[in-house]
Amino acid sequence: MKKWNLLVFLLAILCTSACAPKPVALTVMAAASLTEAFEELAQHFEAQNPGITVKFNFAGSQQLAQQIAEGAPADLFASANQKQMQAAVGAGRVDEAAIQTFAHNRLVVIYPEDNPAGLDGLEDLARPGLKLVMAAKEVPVGEYSLDFLEKAGQEPALGLSYQRAVLRNIVSYEENVKAVLNKVALGEADAGIVYTSDVNGEAAGKIGQLMIPDELNVFASYPIAVLKDSQHATQAQAFVELALSPVGQEILGKYGFMPAQK
User: Domain residue spans in the chain?
Assistant: First the structure.
């Protein structure tokens, strides 16, 4: 009997080491605007899935799509617009049928906390001498910002010359939305255009906001998909399902994102 117990004990030890799931490092390429929300989502995911570590590559969606097209290894891509996700489809790395929209976002005008330019309304963005920063047009938020200005130019209260006047005030085009946020928060510009989800945490205490009404705003859709050549497709799909779940949607909402179904 003692020999039998010893054999069971030894087998249990062997199984503990041999049968335990191997550690998995999940690589997620995600739009810069998702940074804080996805970091919290990853904490929840890792707690639910021992042995899995989520590693992020946060950048402008256009940069990530280019990296994916060039063959950069990854498991999951979360973009701030459909255009860059379609670029990943065109590169053969994402299956069109696998794409799901998991969140929405909207634009807001921000300015330094002390409001050096005395901004009071959207019309002030056209004031000569104002220093405005925006993301480059290749960046989703930059493209959305240009769409907003085009809409605003059709608004009688702002006038047809509004778009041109605002564009003349742009002093720099940034490579992602976080760069726009940081320049404004540091007082290096009088105003910038970002997502409402960017105005949270520490940043919220350093800037003021001018709301853009719904009729002029541009609503961003965020698609997500597991890459076809992912080495951890099952685990990556589990992360997608968490993002779409009530818990994931609550976490995203906490950071200013709107629900996937709006």
Answer: 20-104+221-254, 107-211
